[in-house]
Amino acid sequence: MNEKYPNSTTLAPIMQANLKEIRETIGWTSEDLATLIGVTKQTISNLETNRSKLSKLHYIAIRTVVEFEIEQLQQVDPDRARRAKLLMSFLSESPDIAKQSGKHLDLDQIQETSQLIAKSNSYASAEKIIRSFAPIFATGVISLLMKSANTRKK
Length: 154
Prior knowledge:
The protein contains 9 helices and no strands. The longest helix is centred in the middle third of the chain and has 23 residues, at 78-100. The protein has helices spanning 8-17, 19-26, 30-37, 41-48, 56-76, 78-100, 107-119, 123-131, 139-151. It has one domain (8-151). Helix 3 (30-37) crosses helix 4, helix 5 crosses helix 6 and helix 6 runs antiparallel to helix 9. By secondary structure, it is mainly alpha-helical. The model has no long low-confidence stretch (mean pLDDT 85).
C-alpha cells in the first residue's frame, strides 16, 4: 500500500520540533490548529514543548490541514502561502538534503532555520535564509530545494 506520507517516522520528529514555526508561518494560533485536527489546545502545547510525542495520526492530520491551508492561502495571501510551502519543503526534504550532501541531520540547525523563516516577512527574505545555507549544504542541493518549493503541488 502506498502511503501519502511514507516518511512519517523520519519526518514526524522534524515536524514536531518545528510545529510552532509551521503554525506561525501559516498564521494560526495553537487553538486554530487544535480545532482543525480535533484535539485540545493543550495537546498542541504538549506537542510543541515535547511533553507528548507526535503520533502518526497527528502527523497525517497536521500535514493534511497544512497542505489544504497553503492551497487556500494561494488565493488570499500568495506570499504567505509561498513561505509556508518553502518551510514545508525545507522540513520535508532536510533528511534527503543532509544525506545528499554527506552531512549529519542537525535538528537544531533545522529548527533555527525554520524559526527564521517563520519570522520572515516575505517570501524573498525566506528564500535568502534558505540560500544562506548553501555553504553548509551543497549549493546544488539548495537549488533543488528552491525548485521543489516553487513547483511542489499545492
